[in-house]
User: Fold this.
Amino acid sequence: MKQLPLHSQHAALQAKFGEFAGFDMPLYYTKPLEEHHAVRKDAGVFDISHMGQFMLTGERTGEMLHYVLSSNVRALKNGQALYSLMCREDGGILDDLILYRYDASRYRMIVNAATREQDFLWLLDLAGQFDVRIDDITSSFCLFAVQGPNALGKLDGMIAPRPSSMAYFTFMEAEALGQEIFLARTGYTGEPGLEMAVPVETADGYWRHLVEELGITPIGLAARDTLRLEACLPLYGHEMNLQRHPWESGLGWSVRMNQDEDFIGKMALTAIKAVGFPYRLVGLEMAARGLPREDYPVLQKGSEIGRVTSGGLSPTTGKAIALARVRIPNHKTGTPLQVEIRGKGVDAVVVPRPFYKNPALRRKKGESTGPRRIKVFH
Amino acid sequence: MIPGDLKYTEDHEWIRQEGNAITVGISDFAQDQMTDIVFVELPETGRKVTAGEAIVVLESVKSVADVYAPTNGTVTEVNSALEAHPEYINESPYDKGWIFKMEASGEIMVKFLDAEGYQAFIDTQ
Assistant:
């Protein structure tokens, strides 16, 4: 199993480890619920150095990405970030990722750890056709996410220019602890925050500064999962996979369909949209005692009409919640359904997504523009 | 923390035995391994159970675990406070976090571990 570059620092903080995507990852340091609340109420730091990072360079990089990704890459301006899917020809989802545009010929991409190698090979194959260079820079950097209502304020003294001046879904090269670092106003918790990539050689100093000097709580993967579930942020391999297209995964909003230009998967996705599709991703809230878990059947009058994709207790609301893929017309808000828990149908109801939303995550009027970038939270 | 006045099983349950009356919970080691317990499903009182039968479900943030009847008998009482406060098991596994009581029927055939034996067992885990 692979270890994070700062594995020994996590061990020194008494982290409890578990396997995720081939990495021995910190699951929690104290208690998952405490860590969850720390991010919702104050600020937490996650070591997400397992995630894949690619640099794509060359004159036709923008053109290539506009063809490879299913979102409108052309609308992205310098210094902006974009959530996008990468689909196969049949519309199945290869991965979801965040793309960062430096300029028309230089982009950074952050992808899931489990799909990193497959993504790289897929992109490498296409890069040749567009004369684009792709480098896997994952092992050169540590990636930390600092998230929570106080995250930006706590980092203002450490980083120049001040992170609190950054708009949501933008990024920059900033200076911190005497070095230039990659800093993005993105995250996976439903809170304001930053993701920073720092050189692996000096990463220890940054981690220590965040945890020891600034007193930011270290957070493990267990809380990362409950935070993203409350915010209804999808997780690859759960809400989406190669067998499901974006509309069955709650991600149709990210797909550009009303444009002439071709992209991989467009033909299949156009046909699927024209014909219609039987499943939708919905939010469920339990109306009786029981915790819905991944892959539990969802029932309507005793018959299975879907499956839970992710579920559990919402630490913020105290309610039992789930994302589930259900057959239409059971997707409508207010529809009473049941989740089969240990052989018994337990009452649940379809509720609007997300389960939790921090109003500070809305882009303010006059902030940098660009369509669809913040919709992942809507 | 392994109180010396209790007995233990290799499923990390503790047992307080007073004649045929048995109280069951999970050990401090077990609650620490599970971490934050957020849901408890308890059996009905009066239920007849057999040794090794899964009769309680505990769910933490990320895992689901069963608690087993340590011997044959009848469930006489459950700690229904756990339904609203599953965290009692984490905070006070041997006291406020007790899970159920049962009346053993017939001779108790199961060999439980004493505190020393249980410590030796978890050292091998």
